[in-house]
Fold:
Amino acid sequence: MARVYKLGDGVSTDTIMPGRYNVTTDRDALRRGCLIEARPDFVDTVRSGDVIVAGRNFGCGSSREHAPLAIKQNGVAAVIAVSFARIFYRNAVNIGLPVIRCAELSEVVEDGDAVSVDARRGVIHAAGRTFHGEPPSGVALQIIEAGSLLDLVKSRGWSVLEEAHVP
Amino acid sequence: MGTLTEEIFSRRLGRRVAAGDTVVAGVDCALAHDVTGPLAIEAFRQLDRPVWDARRVVFTFDHVMPANTVAAAELHRTIREFCAEHGVTNVFAEGICHQVLVEKGFAAPGGIMVGADSHSTTYGALGCFATGLGSTDIGVVFATGRTWFRVPETIRVEVHGAPGLGVYAKDIALHVIRRLGADGADYCAVEWCGETVTAMQMDERLTLCNLSVDFGAKAGLIEPDAVTHEYAGGAGDDVHPHAAEYAITLTVDASSIRPQVSVHPAIDNVRDIDDVAGTPLDEVFIGSCTNGRLSDLALAASLLSGRQVDPRTRTVIVPSSRKVYLDALEAGYIETFVRAGALVLNPGCGPCLGRQHGVVGPGENVLSTSNRNYPGRMGSPDARIYLASPAVAAASALCGAITDPGGLA
Structure:
């Protein structure tokens, strides 16, 4: 069963991937640097399919894509937060890390709680309840359906977005 | 008809667009630096296409310059090889991206710019729409020249009144962050206006737009005027907001603001200086894309001239660019700093992001003129970071503790 790693409000990209650990593109080095100071237990205990649950403004600060990459490299199935900082959210979508907005979940679950998530629908089961979060929509959904931004651009280019949205 | 952002996108697309629309638009310039650049290059290579326009692609070496580790040197090498292969000649190792690009004329009124750095909002001081993106987005722009935008709603911040003693653009921005919160402008653009903003020169305008991202804004913009056009040398379009609808209008009375200090661990934990004065400091950093420009150094020099920094406090001063460094040399500021006992380092990001010189240790207090005080930002997560203006920083360096500059000027 997947478990919750619970974080608070205003988790910055400096917390997710401190600047001293992201001077690299090596994916395993990024994986090991994930939350290294705030949750030093994270990389040793996280299992594929586990979920990060956080409060407001998750991923605020720097544009470093190393932050969502590091989370993804640890096999995290979804980040569920009350709200996300804009660049982090866009980066996560671009690389295929599922992100879900959910106002209530972080108030209800505790660190280590069992959780199951349908990332595409935004449906979360935890603490004996079902939560309906908000998965990405619009352009972000099209990127997710393609797999990643690179997959979308390689397969269909920008035209699909232009056709979909130009009145 | 629209906000400055709506007007810029409407012109670019040749049709009327409004907040909430999703558009694909061409950009004038795409930036990446020594830390975000290599991932952008990786993304670009996966598309297997030529660079869309090598003249509009810019790389800077600033976050770790010169390289302090083999890993950093490898990232630099990746960028240099890419640029040689693709004919990219806009490769600068002479200061912080957000100062160098402005000096070199990449930002102009009416333009659209993107950068793989969150503080790309800085360019909006020249009346353009500029925003930060991740490396994959920028890699795609390198190949296609375009990206998608959701045209944002706009928060209008009207600043009136003459700032009081020791109050500068930094204090006005921190005051706004205090009122709106760290995510107060999330997904929105911010238009800074009012006679106090109009009276500012470009350095202070850049500070306002730089800090816009630190309360969540997608872009910070200032309507072009005579100051803008003179600075831009007549480049760009004369674009203005017209009969616009704003999501929120916030009014600020600059005459009532005290010098502001953002206190660890969050940017929106802002206090009047009176509440934190006397806090002992292990390090003071004057520099960064927020406050490392010539007027910032002039302000610091005016306070440090003929005085000595407190020996308990490492004082690190980093000009934001080579041009700023040379101008400061000529004006005598650099000699003032060195005689005062400060360490003057090479142009670049300096200690702001805890990745090169000036890293702070556990339990230390640092006052910085930069833009972020998240735990671990400047080194140990157990250091406390205070953010303030160059005037507060210089006064505090002299006293070894947080000090109101008003009493020293």
Chain B touches chain A through 55 residues (CB under 8 Å). Chain B is about 35% helix and 20% strand.
